[in-house]
Amino acid sequence: GDHRDLHSFPYTTLFRSMEVFLLLNGFEIDAGVDEQEKVILQVASGELGRDEFTEWLGSHILPKPDFADSI
Predict the structure, then answer these.
(1) Which of 15, 25, 33, 37 is 20 to 30 A removed from 44 (C-alpha atoms)?
(2) Tell me, what DSSP letter sits at residue 22?
(3) For 29-66, b where at least 16 C-beta lie within 10 A, e where not — what string?
(4) Can you tell me the distance from the alpha carbon of 35 to that of 52, in angstroms, rounded to the nearest whole number?
(5) Helix, strand or coil, per DSSP, at residue 2
(6) CA-CA distances (angstroms) from residue 57 to 35, 36, 61, 63, 69?
(7) Degrees, nearest 5: CA angle 15-59-66
(8) For residues 17 and 5, which has the higher predicted lDDT (pLDDT)?
(9) Going by C-beta distance under 8 Å and a sequence separation of 6 or more, which residues neighbour residue 1?
(10) How far apart are CA 32 and CA 3, in angstroms?
């Protein structure tokens, strides 16, 4: 397997945890799996810093359309 997968595992877990948190709070990430994986690897490698990640995430969060109906 690719060594990046093992190195990025904690970041992948954190990203998915963040995604669940957002979903539970009525938001979703508006990005495809490929783009999300690219961002995870960029964070893991240090290519994408906290400020850049925060900016990316802020521009890719949408209210979940059916959230109001589920509470």
Answers:
(1) 25
(2) H
(3) bebeeeebeebbbbbbeeebeeeeeeebeeeeeeebee
(4) 15
(5) coil
(6) 12, 10, 6, 13, 25
(7) 75
(8) 17
(9) none
(10) 23
Question: Hey, is 65 helix, strand or coil?
Answer: coil
| CA 37 to centroid of chain Cα atoms | 8
User: Quick check: 63 pLDDT over 50?
Assistant: yes
Which has more pLDDT, 13 or 67?
13
| Residue labelled with tokens 């093992």 | 6
Question: Are the beta carbons of 34 and 42 closer than 8 angstroms?
Answer: no
Beta pairing, strands 61-63 & 27-29:
antiparallel
DSSP label of 17: H
Average confidence score pLDDT of the chain? 84
